[in-house]
């Protein structure tokens, strides 16, 4: 596995150095991504296009968390709270609940902004904390947000409590609503297909932003803080502002995804934003390869698609043994947990580690020990 | 005043359970610097095993006394959880001891999901009731009520904690554990079998978790495959509150968290003029935690950590 991945990578480098080939590959990728909902819809059914939409949402979420955890090295276990903020902002301002129907192009920036402010609210008091202490505080923050969302239906009904908000307006540009079926040039696009293209465009935008950030002054400052905060400060980096910026940027990504989620789903409740969701998003980036955008995307797609694919276990049992021994839905999470353990045991740096981490994970054991000591502060 | 006493008693009982679970987190963290996410699930397994044994014995018509049945259930739970703790460390954590910590964290999360769903497959999704085989006696102290079960829970956890402290401070094994926590490599050079010590740490933690699990299910009269999650979360919070890695800190943190929670739940309505009700209990716990960590990032009894580059 290791060897094949490495040779694959070499091919990739060779391939990338040839510009014409690279353009060709990008073109092929673009065609594939455009055709993907139709291919999936025809081969596997409409349900899978919906899963594709969710995969794109999770890519956006994971890219945001990657900024906080992957770039800046701030372990955040309450990340889903920002997703919730974005989703609830959208839901409350575009649903019959308050009888407000603001347009989506106004709500998304608002959601990003509000989530960013929440990010700073979380970041400011926790600047001195590191590693696991930061993790547990962010976890507490996430839970606090969720509990408030659950209980703020009395005495004034703000969030509608555990029932959640219903009948949320779909994402729409003027008359063009994304959840209706449209026909262009004789091709019919059902709602989930148009959503796919919207999410794809936004996900690409976020990938672009992440890539540009990675190679910017700010991105290098984040990496410096991750590797050694004291040294970074000595180099003249304003660690306070840069850390707050990481929290705010990551949170605003989540705020946008949250708004999209609310509009796409049409219904949200506090249960969608529990700790488990935060953990799943964290698993996506660790599994895929922290700090590496391709890895993060791979992780997000895998962890969205894999649990869904496990629904076929029932059919598999039927096929193999002629009857269903264990309900597929019950077995799904069990296998999911097992897969997490196995992947981490065999590829602890993730499936596609970033260049920096791959170097750190070189064959030399001492490099490994060094990495262990420097990653997230750790050795006391 | 009687509400205060009552909530204080409830808080202390809850807190002593939290403390027992928190010890498992803190001991493992002290040695491996790993958040053992699966620890809450070990607690849940303790409760489930105990209930299964109680169900089998009470239904068998052997005419055993209620307290003996519960005791047998407790022993079975401890035995199963000890082997579970040992297996978890051996299978999931040991191969990852030299890899980055986030990888180990994800493994721990995976283990937690795995155990939870395993329990769901074995015992189903329904709540399991603790059969009323123990006689309940109520005592009145200063206007508050305390049951024999509550007294028993507090006394047993006190005994266990004292025992653990003695074990760690006074015995050869305890000294080896402390040495391993301080510097694994050096401890190995001094002739300590580090692997064995780590295994023993997991086993002791799991045994305490089993006792706590049985206590929780007896106290609330219920057990559920999902119960380990929030319990583990609170216990870990307690461990951090006291200063993670610190044994006495976990005990203090557990008790404090229990008391804060029940006092908070009891008074939050009056304090906010009825705006916030007792269902904000969990918010209260987390809020205090954040406050403590912001003011004193190393926890109440944790040593101030000098940052090393």
What do you see in this structure?
- The complex is a heterodimer of chains A (380) and B (309).
- Chain A is mainly alpha-helical.
- Chain A has one domain (37-374): ABC transporter involved in vitamin B12 uptake, BtuC, CATH 1.10.3470.
- Chain A has 16 helices and 6 strands.
- Chain A has helices spanning 2-17, 19-44, 46-71, 80-93, 104-123, 131-151, 191-214, 217-227, 229-234, 239-265, 275-288, 293-309, 313-321, 328-346, 355-360, 365-374; strands spanning 94-95, 100-101, 172-173, 176-177, 182-184, 187-189.
- In chain A, the strands form 3 sheets. Chain A has a two-stranded antiparallel sheet.
- In chain A, helix 4 (80-93) runs antiparallel to helix 5 (104-123).
- The mean pLDDT of chain A is 82.
- Chain B has 309 residues and is mainly alpha-helical.
- Chain B has a single domain (2-135, 149-295), classed as Orthogonal Bundle (ABC transporter involved in vitamin B12 uptake, BtuC), CATH 1.10.3470.
- Helices cover 73% and strands 4% of the residues of chain B.
- Chain B has 11 helices and 4 strands; from the N terminus they run H-H-H-H-E-E-E-H-H-H-H-E-H-H-H.
- Chain B has helices spanning 2-32, 39-60, 66-93, 101-123, 148-170, 172-182, 184-189, 194-220, 227-242, 247-271, 281-295, and strands at residues 128-129, 138-141, 144-147, 222-223.
- A two-stranded antiparallel ribbon of chain B has the order 1-4. A two-stranded antiparallel sheet of chain B has the order 2-3.
- In chain B, strand 2 and strand 3 form a beta hairpin.
- The radius of gyration of chain B is 20 Å and the shape is globular.
- The relative contact order of chain B is 0.20.
- Mean pLDDT of chain B is 86; it is low at 305-309.
Order of helices and strands of chain A: HHHHEEHHEEEEHHHHHHHHHH
Largest interface: which pair? Answer: A-B, 59 and 55 residues
According to CATH, the fold-level topology of chain A is: ABC transporter involved in vitamin B12 uptake, BtuC
Query: Helix fraction of chain A?
Result: over 70%
- Secondary structure tally, helices of chain B: 11
């Amino acid at each position: 596995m290791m060897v094949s991945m490495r040779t694959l990578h070499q091919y990739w480098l060779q391939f990338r150095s040839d510009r014409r080939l690279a353009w060709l590959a990008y073109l092929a990728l673009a065609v594939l991504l455009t055709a993907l909902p139709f291919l999936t819809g025809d081969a596997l059914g409409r349900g899978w296009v919906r899963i594709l939409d969710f995969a794109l949402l999770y890519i956006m979420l994971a890219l945001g968390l990657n900024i906080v955890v992957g770039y800046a090295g701030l372990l955040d276990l309450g990340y889903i709270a920002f997703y919730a903020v974005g989703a609830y902002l959208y839901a409350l301002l575009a649903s019959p609940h308050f009888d407000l129907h603001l347009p989506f192009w106004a709500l998304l920036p608002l959601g990003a902004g509000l989530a960013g402010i929440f990010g700073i609210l979380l970041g400011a008091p926790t600047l001195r904390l590191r590693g696991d202490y930061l993790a547990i505080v962010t976890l507490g923050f996430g839970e606090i947000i969720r509990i408030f969302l659950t209980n703020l239906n009395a005495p004034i009904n703000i969030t509608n409590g555990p029932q959640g908000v219903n009948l949320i307006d779909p994402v729409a540009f003027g008359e063009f609503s994304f959840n209706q079926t449209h026909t262009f040039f004789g091709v019919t696009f059902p709602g989930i297909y148009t959503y796919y293209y919207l999410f794809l465009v936004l996900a690409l935008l976020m990938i672009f932003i992440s890539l540009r950030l990675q190679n910017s002054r700010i991105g290098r400052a984040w990496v410096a803080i991750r590797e050694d905060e004291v040294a970074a400060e000595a180099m003249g980096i304003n660690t306070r502002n840069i850390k707050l910026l990481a929290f705010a940027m990551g949170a605003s990504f989540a705020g946008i995804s949250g708004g999209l989620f609310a509009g796409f789903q049409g219904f949200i409740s506090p249960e969608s934003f529990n700790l488990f969701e935060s953990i799943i998003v964290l698993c996506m980036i660790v599994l895929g390869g922290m700090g590496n955008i391709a890895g993060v995307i791979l992780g997000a797609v895998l962890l969205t698609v894999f649990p869904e694919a496990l629904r076929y276990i029932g059919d598999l049992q039927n096929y193999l043994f002629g009857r269903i021994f264990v309900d597929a839905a019950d077995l799904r999470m069990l296998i999911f947990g097992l897969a997490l353990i196995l992947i981490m045991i065999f590829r602890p740096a993730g499936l596609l580690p970033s260049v920096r981490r791959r170097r750190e994970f070189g064959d030399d054991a001492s490099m490994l020990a060094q990495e262990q000591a420097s990653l997230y502060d750790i050795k006391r | 005043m009687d509400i205060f006493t009552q909530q204080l008693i409830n808080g202390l009982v809850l807190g002593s359970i939290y403390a027992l679970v928190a010890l498992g987190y803190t001991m493992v963290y002290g040695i491996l610097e790993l958040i053992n996410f699966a620890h809450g699930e070990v607690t849940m397994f303790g409760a489930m095993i105990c209930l299964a044994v109680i169900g089998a014995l009470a239904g068998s018509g052997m005419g055993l006394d209620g307290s003996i049945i519960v005791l047998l259930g407790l022993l079975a739970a401890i035995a199963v959880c000890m082997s579970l703790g040992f297996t978890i460390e051996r299978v999931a954590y040991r191969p990852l001891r030299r890899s980055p910590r986030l990888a180990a964290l994800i493994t721990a999360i995976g283990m937690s999901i795995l155990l939870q769903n395993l329990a769901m497959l074995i015992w189903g999704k329904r709540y399991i009731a603790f059969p009323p085989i123990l006689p309940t006696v109520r005592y009145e102290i200063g206007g508050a009520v305390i049951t024999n079960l509550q007294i028993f829970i507090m006394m047993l956890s006190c005994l266990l904690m004292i025992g653990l402290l003695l074990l760690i401070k006074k015995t050869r094994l305890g000294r080896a554990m402390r040495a391993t926590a301080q510097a694994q490599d050096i401890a190995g050079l001094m002739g300590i079998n580090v692997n064995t010590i780590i295994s023993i740490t997991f086993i002791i933690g799991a045994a305490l978790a089993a006792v706590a699990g049985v206590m929780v299910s007896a106290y609330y009269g219920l057990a559920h495959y999902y119960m380990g999650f929030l319990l583990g979360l609170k216990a870990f919070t307690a461990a951090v509150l006291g200063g993670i890695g610190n044994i006495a800190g976990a005990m203090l943190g557990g008790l404090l968290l229990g008391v804060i929670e029940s006092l908070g739940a009891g008074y939050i309505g009056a304090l906010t003029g009825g705006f916030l009700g007792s269902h904000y209990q969990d918010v209260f716990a987390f809020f205090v935690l954040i406050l403590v960590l912001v003011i004193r990032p190393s926890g109440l009894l944790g040593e101030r950590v000098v940052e090393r580059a």
